[in-house]
Write a structure and sequence with these properties.
By secondary structure, this protein is α/β, with parallel strands linked by helices. It is built from 15 helices and 25 strands. The strands form four sheets. Strands 1, 2, 10, 11, 12, 13, 14, 15, 16, 17, 18, 20, 21 and 22 form a 14-stranded mixed beta sheet that branches. A five-stranded parallel beta sheet has the order 4-3-5-6-7. β13, α11 and β14 form a beta-alpha-beta unit. The chain is globular and about 70 Å long. 52% of the residues are buried.
Length: 525
């Protein structure tokens, strides 16, 4: 395989929409929500309008004082205008720092301090809610609200009509965007991307879309603050795809939206696809038009892929799974069909992208890396981030001779497929792979909507699960489905809304384990 080569180009977020509008100006973006920043936009905007909104927002931010290379943290209620603001910041040559709306106030305040008095773009809901009384004036340059007004804050609404600014194109190796890690292990790390590393992430994703000959409508339910979203726009806008951008994963709302828009391509998080399994039998047949499903955030369960593929009425639909990390972008990928999905090993993440990524397995104990003796997954990627902002030493500890070690554990099959077993921090003594257990049991018990295996108060493997409509778990069916793993503790049932999650809907396993410990302490006192 060719070595992973850095990109010879840069991806400039602030110019993507403008360039796409020149060729596909009347193409539509359909929203399932209103934009707080531009409430007059409604639920449909053209590419030309998107480019205009970005240019207009950049002018307002410049009037608010934002200048080249400054940090602009974006932390507001969920919505596509997060990406409009981020693109506008990038258009000024400043650095957008995308912070999840789901982050708690304490984490956001700590990240703002780490950034060193950045601008903060937010909204009144955040300022009057979780940040009420917070010392934002002491740790930010300025606080800017996207709409309305708030004492001590600049309102973008008041800056309408500000003079437009010429776009600033920075050197391809300078910081161009910051996102953050999932936060499953504590305070998120700020991941620094450049235009060159963003283009390195773009390349394998663009190659995937180059294989799609049909001009499909693409539905996106993706975290706006993840690096995937600006890259999705960079892939889709120049190709002129009609897009459906979604805030709400509620199955009934998704069914109604897709029945109207008939997407041929859906991309989302694995947990959202799990929620949408029930749409396979929906009377509106919302998945009938879908030719391609795609997820780039985490491993997805084979049973989920099987159900969704069989809900499509297109010939030979494909479910494409990509495994990657916040620091590297996409690393390996694999496609599944109706025939292969259910029987697939859910731990097989796929194969590297020639020229863009490569991986190797490194032993933890000096013995050969095998299924029963998994090793560290070390990778090279054209899209590997520049570092962690303010934590250079922490980043460097994961670099080994030019390879990045993300602390995931796995092995390589004879066919070259990368099998992911667990993150090292999530591994439980006596359990070969918590993810493998979850794959198998979810495939056997249709009534489950979520299952995660985490260490309990005594280090035991505790299954935490949710069921459809919160129905009581059938203990006999559970026992039959888990007979292979007698070391599992008694299951703990929770409502799916009670599970702690990241911006990309991953269950925060360490936080969940901490809650189980706290519950055990409370019961024993």
């Amino acid at each position: 395989m060719l070595p992973a080569q850095s990109s010879d180009k840069g991806l400039y977020m602030g110019l993507v929409a403008e360039r796409a509008a020149a060729q596909h100006g009347d193409r539509l973006i359909i929203l399932d929500h209103d934009l707080a920043l531009f409430p007059e936009a409604g639920r449909e905007i053209t590419y030309t309008q998107l480019a205009e909104y970005i240019d207009d927002t950049a002018a307002r931010l410049y009037a608010a004082g934002v200048r080249q290379s400054q940090h602009v943290a974006i932390h507001k209620s969920n919505g596509f205008d997060i990406n409009i603001v981020s693109s506008a910041v990038a258009r000024l040559g400043a650095v957008p720092v995308q912070l999840s709306p789901a982050l708690n106030a304490e984490s956001v305040l700590e990240l703002l301090r780490r950034l060193g008095a950045p601008f903060l773009v937010t909204d009144t809901a955040k300022l009057e809610g979780p940040f009420a009384g917070a010392p934002l004036g002491e740790i930010t340059n300025e606080v800017i609200v996207v709409a309305g007004s708030h004492p001590g804050a600049i309102s973008l609404a008041d800056l309408a009509g500000s003079p437009r600014q010429e776009p600033v194109v920075l050197h391809a190796d300078l910081p161009a965007l910051m996102t953050h890690t999932s936060g499953t292990t504590g305070l998120p790390k700020l991941v620094v991307h450049s235009a060159r590393t963003l283009h390195g992430r773009y390349r394998p994703q663009a190659k995937l879309f180059d294989m799609i000959r049909e001009h499909e409508t693409v539905a996106l339910h993706v975290s706006y603050v993840h690096s995937r979203m600006p890259l999705a726009l960079a892939v889709l806008l120049p190709r002129g795809h009609k897009m459906v951008v979604m805030n709400d994963a509620d199955p009934q709302k998704a069914a109604e939206l897709w029945a109207e828009t008939r997407p041929g391509f859906i991309e989302s998080h694995p947990n959202s696809f799990m929620e949408w399994e029930e749409l396979a039998d929906h009377p509106l047949k919302p998945l009938a038009s879908v030719k391609y499903f795609s997820t780039t955030f985490d491993a997805i369960h084979p049973s989920t892929m099987h159900k969704l593929l069989h809900a499509s009425e297109r010939s030979s639909p494909l479910f494409y799974q990509i495994y990657g990390q916040s620091e590297t972008g996409p690393l390996v990928g694999r496609g599944f069909t109706r025939k292969t999905a259910l029987g697939a090993d859910g731990r097989c993440q796929g194969y590297a992208f020639p020229g863009d990524t490569k991986f190797k397995l490194v032993s933890r104990n000096g013995k050969e890396v095998t299924r029963d003796n998994p090793g560290y997954i070390d990778v090279q990627a054209a899209g590997r981030a520049l570092g962690y902002f303010g934590e250079r030493e922490r980043y460097d500890t994961q670099v080994h001779g030019g390879w990045w070690r993300g602390m995931d554990l796995g092995y390589r099959t004879e066919e070259g497929c990368l099998h992911l077993l667990d993150r090292e921090v999530d591994s439980i003594p006596g359990i070969h792979s918590t993810l493998e257990i979850e794959d198998v049991v979810l495939g056997r018990l249709d009534e489950l909507t979520e299952l995660v295996v985490v260490p309990g108060p005594l280090g035991e493997a505790v299954p935490v699960l949710s069921t459809r409509d919160d129905r009581p778990l059938d203990r006999h069916r559970w026992k039959d489905a888990t007979t292979r793993w007698p070391q599992l503790a008694e299951p703990v049932q929770m409502k799916i809304t009670e599970l702690p999650r990241t911006a990309t809907m991953k269950v925060q396993r360490i936080e969940l384990a901490a809650r189980l410990r706290a519950l055990a302490i409370g019961q024993s006192s």
